[in-house]
Amino acid sequence: MSPDTKARIDELVNGHKIMVFMKGTKLMPQCGFSNNVVQILNVLGVPFETFDVLSDYEIRQGIKDYSNWPTIPQVYVNGEFLGGSDILIELYQNGELQEKVEVALAS
Q1: Contact at 8 Å (CB) between 62 and 56?
Q2: For site-directed labelling of 32, which of 39, 43, 92, 102 has its Cα 20 to 30 A away?
Q3: Confidence of residue 73 (pLDDT cuts 50, 70, 90)
Q4: Is the pLDDT of residue 70 over 90?
Q5: pLDDT for 83 beyond 90
Q6: Alpha carbon of 13 to those of 26, 70, 93: distances in Å?
Q7: Neighbours of 22 (CB within 10 A)
Q8: Which residues are paired to 21 by β-bridges?
Q9: Which candidate, 1, 7, 17, places its Cα nearest to that of 77?
Q10: Residue 55 near residue 3 (C-beta atoms within 8 A)
Q11: pTM score, two decimals?
Q12: In the predicted model, what is the mean pLDDT of residues 74-100?
């Protein structure tokens, strides 16, 4: 990954309390996994930002290296990588996601 791409990802991850790298946008997800993440965050009623990886090949590839995670979507809370759709569903079901989001938004 180029230093420019890493700097752009750093800015996105650290510039938002909740950042989702996904296919599509929060208003129009372009895959089921991205839609799952958007629906969970909408149910929690929290503000979050998204980046459409389909719009930028450098970010699409770079985010996978950045997190050492091969799939999209990727969710970051307070700069910490949480995981993708399956992990977010699990964290939501066991209550951990709500806790992490509350702490992030309070800080």
Answers
A1: no
A2: 102
A3: very high
A4: yes
A5: yes
A6: 16, 17, 24
A7: 27
A8: 51, 74
A9: 17
A10: no
A11: 0.94
A12: 94
Under the banding of pLDDT at 50, 70 and 90, the label for residue 77 is very high
State the amino acid at position 79 in one-letter form.
G
Neighbours of 32 (CB within 10 A): 9
Q: Which numeric CATH code is attached to 3-101? A: 3.40.30.10
Residue 107: what pLDDT? 81
Query: 43: which 2 tokens?
Result: 């149910």
DSSP 29: B
What is the CB neighbour count within 10 angstroms for residue 98? Answer: 14
DSSP of 39-82: HHHHHHT---EEEEGGG-HHHHHHHHHHHT--SS-EEEETTEEE
- Residue among 77, 84, 80, 81 nearest 101 (CA): 77
**Token reading at 101:** 């989001």
